[in-house]
Amino acid sequence: MVQRTVFFISDQTGVTAETFGQSLLTQFDGASFNRITIPFVSNREKAEEAVRKINLTAEAEGQRPLVFSTLVHDDLRDMLHEANGLYLDFFDAFLAPLERELGVKSSHTTGRAHGMSANVDAYNFRIEATNYALNNDDGAHIKDYGKADVILVGVSRSGKTPTCLYMAMQYGVFAANYPLTEEEFESGKLPAALDSHRKKLYGLTINSQRLRQIRKERLDGGRYATPQQISFELREAEKLFKKYGVPTIDTTEMSVEEIASTILQHTGLERRFRP
Fold first, then answer.
1. What angle do CA 251, 254, 260 make, to 5 degrees?
2. 229: CB partners within 8 A, 6+ apart
3. What CATH number was assigned to the domain covering residues 120-267?
4. 181 close to 237: Cβ distance less than 8 angstroms
5. CB of 124 within 8 A of CB of 23?
């Protein structure tokens, strides 16, 4: 298997460089990558240090590392171009064609993608939505469901919490979640707090083998991760979803990003901001 070191270089947090690079690297199944992120490369000294690390890696490994960059300033980008790596620059690839098409020069301002100053309202929405998701995790505050945009429902470890947090942080969606337990399965009813917000409910289902794997990693032993208990919970949850007309999504082979995007598409929820 091909093995290469990959550097993600950024003058801010590195999130954009990582996302840009990772989306390309996932296309190469026959390769293994050692990923190194160098954020906040905002001056010549830090750029020189990044170049030094890239060159040392190339010398030690006998092959050029891959370098994904989202540096904005031309002088810093020119320095990285001189490093002994395959330099792949986000702005080189896209800014120049956009400038030609729009007939407008770009500002070359750092921090626009993830900085707070770019859109204070969006930042405040993100914080408020994230706090809501944390405070309404696992049915903690059912009295706050009136404020929810969506309420995710499912058995334990089906992906409710990470999906709620992702929707909050990326889209500003107020997402609560409620875990289905023995109480609901025995009564065959959803609690009144959920029934009164039935239009906001969205069910998460998952393959029994995958759920057992997840539960065993978290808490191996007792009934929690046994095939019998898992099959029972999934079967009863499915009955409740059908009884109350709750739309569902199978999360077995989906990432959190895919789950969140699918729910937004199916429900018609509007993003409060763009990531």
1. 80
2. 223
3. 3.40.50
4. no
5. no
pTM of the model: 0.70
229: which 2 tokens? 């208990």
| Biggest CA pair distance of the chain | 68
Fold match flag (2-102 vs 120-267) = yes
Alpha-carbon distance values, 60 to 33, 37, 83, 103 (Å)? 16, 18, 14, 45
Rounded CA-CA distance 186/27 in Å is 46
With CA atoms as reference, report the closest residue to 61 among 80, 85, 82.
85
Q: What is the pLDDT of residues 199-225, one digit of tens each?
A: 999 999 999 999 999 998 877 677 888
Question: 2-102, which class in CATH?
Answer: alpha beta
Domain ranges of the chain: 2-102, 120-267
Query: In whole angstroms, how large is the CA radius of gyration of the chain?
Result: 23
Mean per-residue pLDDT for 185-193? 91
> What are the start-end ranges of the H helices in 27-111?
44-61, 74-81, 90-102
